[in-house]
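Dock acetoacetyl-coenzyme A; give full complex structure.
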Amino acid sequence: MEFEISNEQEMIRLMARDFAKKELEPFASEWDRKGIFPLETIKKMGNLGLFGMMVPTEFGGSGAGAVAYSLALQEIAYTCASSAVTMSVANLATEPLLKFGTPTQKEKWLLGLAQGMLLGAFALTEPNAGSDPGSMTTTAVLKKDRYIINGTKVFITHGQYADIINLIARTGPEKGTRGLSAFIIEKGTPGFTIGSKEDKLGLRASNTVELVFNDCEIPVENLLGNPGEGFKIAMLALDSGRIGIASQAVGIARACMDEAIAYSKERKQFGKTINSFQAIQFMIADAATKIEAASWLTLAAAYRKDRGLKFTKEASMAKLFSSETANTVAYMALQIHGGYGYTKNYKIERLFRDARATTIYEGTSEIQRIVIARETINR
Ligand code: CAA
């Protein structure tokens, strides 16, 4: 396989690094401490084209592709993992419209999402339907030319600030994954309200809320794809989403390793800096090796996506390995910091908490193993 990062992809990576340094680094710690969602900064990210990276230019995107997207997202995550998940979900939210939207729907919503004028969210999970979205109970009932939506979605990333929501709901009598359909819900639609906000362990500068639909009426024109295609639309969007979370995890892992290296060069014990001990060097060696592998797995999935190849398995492998790596490396890096790493005075404390979400959302590690096993065994 020939794989090379092009000049353009490298420039995008550097542009994201520069943005992170100027716009995220000075504030990330305070946003985390105070639980602030930095809406103005998020708008700047959108204006820079970071929300429509996999959308072709004809629909308002940058057309940069998944490899460039992964590289940019790694840079954002390195500095602020919360902003990285916002960026990841904003890009995920373009996928259903890009693949299933009519020309009118694309014109109405995709353009705005891709150009960063609209912020998009993705609502699949329910209180009793997490790993198993096929058991969802939110309904969308067709009455003449309108769908009436009732139900509750939970753990919705930036749901409170989103201009449009990709919603999956049950439209047919079929059980499980059949009979689900995808819709676009606009902010401010009567019957649609924001419920409680989660008070999370990490990613505290990302907004996570409940969405409540109470006889919420939307026009039939807001249906995406055909009735009954909702589960497939959600899974295809999640394939892409998992490249995003894998990239976020690689960025977090790199930041953890760099913090550990910097600390180990300064901290002295037994009369010398602790980086001179082999125990510390071996931890860094393991971290560097795992991060390299995670990065290549993630870029390989992105590369396949850019070439129009199926990448379901590769995205799940990347997400599984990178998120587990982020947690292992965060653990080692905090260990290297010793007691200081357990205080709020060092960045590693935030990184450790932020890493934890990556093995859970957009499919737990256990779900990724199910996908990989099915795709490998039933090849
Ligand atoms: N692409 C296209 N179609 C797909 C697909 C994919 N990747 N995966 C499954 N499908 C299709 C299947 O082919 C099948 O089609 P038919 O009905 O025509 O046969 C249909 O969908 C049902 O598939 P399965 O039988 O495999 O469904 P399942 O119930 O066994 O579930 C699963 C499969 C992979 C476990 C899936 O339920 C899953 O991914 N669960 C995890 C959900 C998840 O990741 N949630 C995260 C929510 S988003 C989030 O975290 C929010 C955030 O903002 C960060």
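Observed: The chain has three domains: 7-114, 120-230, 232-377.
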